[in-house]
Design a protein that fits this description.
mainly alpha, two-stranded antiparallel ribbon, 4 helices, 2 strands, 41% helix, elongated
Length: 106
Amino acid sequence: MSKPRRPQTDAETKREIVREIRVGDLTQAAAARRLRVSAQSIHRWMMRSGSTPRPSRFVAVDLTSTPATSISLVEIGLARGRTLRVPIDVTADDLGRLVRVRESTC
């Protein structure tokens, strides 16, 4: 005997989830867990709505106000769990280029 199917998610709930993802309040993975649906379902809802999730925002960090230490590298978390380690004195322009190159190669 097969398992009973889970009730389908209504259109209004799908629109609300897509909106929350689009504005950055919710990730696709968190939405899938919350609704107990597959990540592929959430992705399909996003594509059907003509939306893609907004990329994470770049957060500026001012390290000049920290006490003098022997820090020589900064580790930056990128999408999909990747990491970029750069010298502490890297310029913002160079860092932006490095992130774009790293993101485009994976």
